[in-house]
Design brief:
Helices cover about 35% and strands about 15% of the residues. It has about 300 residues and is of the alpha/beta class. The longest helix is centred in the middle third of the chain and has 21 residues.
Length: about 300
């Protein structure tokens, strides 16, 4: 890894420790985030191209963040927010977008159609297709050619990131994918044991067909098709998973099951376990330190 990146990791890790040093969060619906932020007083200034439409729907919008100087690489990150496929927006990753740009990569954070727009996961993956194509074209027009990209998402956005990376033929090659608190297996016995009406309603919207506790077996093929753990092949990109062992929204076993499938087909991966954290990954600053370093290690290895 380049020496300047090592220095930046140290600064960012210190910020994460400060941001996460309070008591563990108890709100399990809060979205997972390593709390990456920008040091105050930084001499770096990034460029932005905001509210770029990548389709005709009002939800199909993105913001791009550019490095302070021309990079030696032509790589980038596409950031996909969480929110249960029904809430959240591109602004949730605004700070991370700027931070990644300061590290020398072109970044973009996107909105996408959600349940309120009648969208299924297939529609959301189609939005990522359009977003990547627009991201590539707009960045090139702005003088920042991007030839390879990493996908990074949180919770529902992590599910979409993994699904896209494992199932689509992308406009831009995907160097690696990062999922924080990701649903990976909707047939996981631990997930089904804890599932209530809200989870089955989510599955119904996500798949576009009715799913209830009594119809899981009938819908098994459709549920598998929407679960990243069942879509892994040997050609899947390297994967980083970050998951709280005390997550009561998405059971930790989801991350373990996906890891086992990645290992079985020989795909490079890392599972970062947050032993004291729930869904928001807030109670393990030491693991956040490793997470920050690992993302940059993967970027150095698989994007450049």
């Amino acid at each position: 890894m380049r020496s300047w990146l090592v220095k930046v990791v140290a600064v960012l890790a210190a910020l994460v420790l400060a941001a996460c040093s309070g008591p563990p969060a108890t709100n399990q619906t809060r979205e997972p985030t390593p709390s990456w932020s920008t040091p105050s007083g930084t001499p770096f200034v990034t460029g932005q191209h905001t509210n770029v439409a990548y389709g005709t729907h009002k939800a199909q919008m993105m913001d791009l963040c550019y490095p302070p100087s021309r990079p030696t690489n032509t790589s980038g990150f596409l950031l996909i927010h969480g929110g249960g496929w029904s809430s959240g927006n591109k602004g949730d990753f605004a700070g991370l977008c700027a931070t990644i740009a300061r590290l020398g990569y072109v970044a973009a954070t996107i909105d996408y159609r959600m349940f309120g727009d009648g969208a299924t996961y297939a529609d959301m993956l189609a939005d990522i297709d359009l977003a990547l194509a627009t991201y590539r074209d707009v960045a090139r027009t702005d003088g920042w050619p991007v030839t390879k990209v990493a996908l990074l998402g949180a919770s529902a956005g992590a599910h979409l990131s993994l699904m896209y990376a494992y199932t689509r033929e992308p406009t831009l090659p995907i160097g690696f994918v990062v999922g924080m608190g990701s649903p990976t297996d909707f047939l996981d016995p631990a997930y089904l044991a804890a599932a209530g009406d809200a989870q089955y309603e989510q599955l119904t919207h996500l798949l576009g067909v009715s799913v209830t506790k009594d119809t899981v077996d009938q819908r098994r093929a459709a549920i598998e098709a929407a679960s990243p753990a069942y879509r892994v092949t040997a050609s899947a990109p390297p994967t980083i998973l970050a998951h709280g062992s005390k997550d009561t929204l998405v059971p930790y076993s989801n991350a373990v099951l996906l890891s086992a499938r990645l290992a079985a087909v020989g795909v490079p991966y890392e599972l970062l376990t947050y032993p004291h954290s729930g869904h928001d990954l807030a109670a393990d600053p030491d693991v956040n330190n490793r997470f920050l370093s690992l993302v940059l290690e993967y970027a150095s290895r698989y994007l450049e």
